[in-house]
From TrEMBL, chain A:
Protein name (database record): Acyl carrier protein
Gene3D superfamilies cross-referenced by the UniProt entry: ACP-like (1.10.1200.10)
Annotated compartments: Plastid, Chloroplast
One protein family per Pfam: PP-binding
Gene this chain is encoded by: LOC103716734
Organism expressing this protein natively: Phoenix dactylifera
TrEMBL record, chain B:
Residue span, 4'-phosphopantetheinyl transferase domain: 151-245
A GO cellular-component term linked to this record: cytosol
EC number: 2.7.8.7
The keyword S-adenosyl-L-methionine is assigned to this record: no
Record's protein name: holo-[acyl-carrier-protein] synthase
Keywords: Transferase
Domain 4'-phosphopantetheinyl transferase N-terminal: 56-142
Species of provenance: Phoenix dactylifera (Date palm)
GO MF, one example: holo-[acyl-carrier-protein] synthase activity
GO BP terms, alphabetized: lysine biosynthetic process via aminoadipic acid
Matching Gene3D superfamilies: 4'-phosphopantetheinyl transferase domain
Pfam families registered for this protein in UniProt: AASDHPPT_N, ACPS
Spans through the membrane: none
InterPro entries to which the protein is assigned, alphabetical: 4-PPantetheinyl_Trfase_dom, 4-PPantetheinyl_Trfase_dom_sf, AASDHPPT_N, P-Pant_transferase_sf
Length: 143, 319
């Protein structure tokens, strides 16, 4: 996992502003990049790790986890298939209100068989935050 | 760059690169200040907005920071909603300033929990009214409540809102035991769902009036319940007897938090709406538990305003 993250960060490193502009244009401006896991397994999700996370550590969740979180979020918020949801996506920018947020947390608990404390739930602002927390809880459960 | 982003966002015709200066928007219908214990509620229905040039007029009212926030929303529909919300707040507040402050001039700051409030400029010969406001939105409506001097919280939810999780599971997790018990007295799932939504709007309105929001005031720590006129607890069977709404801390049941009054009603046949306002403890009339007064307008800023207070657009009021 660590080496894949390393590759992803090197490939996707781009300034924050450009990433945002792409969100507005509906991702049509994204260059295609050779990131084989993404192409083969996850056509509807484009991974954009937050630029600040340069350390190659276990802090970043697996792509499958991010993908599953995206699915649950899209379902809860009834987003159309062409609405891009990525790790970077902020719940507030996706139109989630507080009821959506609690439903998403409950959906994630069910899907991953974990239990999220209220204080931890409050700190989640992006899909990536949720995925990272999930992996931490899953790991804690199995250890 | 901002023009480019704007062109991508709005359905403008393609040769509008040379920007024509916008005509100054038509004046807004001014409104008299809310009286004590009164909430003014202004709402806009996004689907009623068909005119792209109106979106441009609204965009022009926003601060650069607000524009960036709008454009960060994911997709055109959400961007339009965010834009309308800011335009609604600015135009609504401007109505109460006797034409002295334009919608564009307003400045805002946030309290320590993130609740927005007006930051007034200093005026030499005029004292700005101490306006308190709060907004709420769904994808099909945006509402802005205004009161004078005392904190206010507003929440709206679509009546037809479905939850993905089981209602009682949600309630057991997030509501107080008394509230869960109330929901369990409801015989059928549809009633349960409706009452859950209504309770949710009341609880949201309360934490927003407190200025703390959902993360600052855990829902589990307080109970909101409906009482009949004889002070008896309303159950599923008797919910039509509900004549007032009270809030109490879970740790101190029976000690009502009298500082707050509520109104719960149906808006536009499509939404439940809840308003929570702080009582003025210095005002003897307020201490006598007189209920909240409500005035409601449907608006499309710069296009039309309609007072709907005594109409079918506002019904089933409990306060």
């Amino acid at each position: 996992m660590a080496s894949i993250s390393g590759t992803a960060i090197a490939t996707f490193a781009r300034p924050q502003f450009a990433a945002r502009a792409q969100v507005v244009k509906g991702f049509s401006g994204l260059k295609s990049v050779s990131f084989s896991i993404q192409r083969n397994g996850f056509p509807s999700v484009r991974l954009q790790p937050a630029p600040r996370r340069f350390q190659v550590s276990c802090a970043q969740a697996k792509p499958e986890t991010v993908q599953k979180v995206c699915e649950i979020v899209k379902k809860q918020l009834a987003l159309s298939d062409d609405t891009p949801v990525t790790g970077e996506s902020k719940f507030s920018a996706l139109g989630a209100d507080s009821l959506d947020t609690v439903e998403i947390v409950m959906g994630l608990e069910e899907a991953f068989e974990i239990s999220v404390e209220e204080e931890s739930a409050q700190s989640i602002t992006t899909v990536q935050d949720a995925a990272d927390l999930i992996e931490k809880l899953v790991e804690a459960k199995s250890s | 760059m901002s023009w480019l982003l704007r062109r991508n966002m709005l359905p403008l015709h393609s040769n509008s690169l040379a920007r024509r200066p916008l005509a100054s928007p038509p004046p807004l219908l001014p409104a008299p200040l809310p009286s004590p214990r009164e909430t003014h509620l202004w709402y806009v229905v996004p689907d009623q907005l068909k005119d792209a040039s109106l979106l441009n007029q609204y965009m022009d009212l926003l601060s650069p920071c607000e524009r960036q926030s709008v454009l960060r929303m994911n997709g055109e529909r959400l961007q339009k909603g965010a834009l309308l919300a800011r335009a609604l707040v600015r135009t609504t507040l401007a109505r109460y300033t006797d034409c002295r402050v334009s919608p564009k001039s307003f400045k805002f700051r946030k309290n320590r929990f993130g609740k927005p409030e007006v930051e007034w400029n200093k005026y030499d010969l005029w004292a700005p009214p101490p306006l308190q406001f709060n907004i709420s939105h769904t994808s099909t409506m945006i509402a802005c409540g205004v009161a004078l001097d005392l904190p206010i919280g507003v929440d709206i939810e679509e009546k037809q809102r479905k939850t993905r999780n089981n209602i009682l599971s949600l309630a057991r997790r997030y509501f107080s035991p008394v509230e869960v018990a109330y929901l369990r007295t409801l015989a059928d799932l549809e009633s349960q769902r409706h009452e859950f939504i209504r309770l949710w709007t009341l609880k949201e309105a309360y934490v927003k009036a407190l200025g703390r929001g959902f993360s600052g005031a855990p829902f589990k720590d307080f109970t909101i319940r409906l009482e009949a006129s004889n002070s008896k607890q309303v159950t599923g069977e008797s919910k039509s007897d509900a004549s007032r709404i009270v809030v109490e801390a879970v740790d101190h049941p029976g000690i009502l938090m009298n500082r707050w009054h509520f109104a719960l009603f149906e808006l536009n046949n499509s939404h439940y709406a809840a308003v929570c306002m702080e009582r003025d403890v210095k005002d003897p009339a307020d201490r006598e538990n007189n209920s909240l007064k409500l005035e409601v307008w449907r608006t499309l800023p710069f296009v039309e305003d309609e007072c709907v207070t005594e109409t079918a657009a506002v019904k089933n009021i409990i306060r």
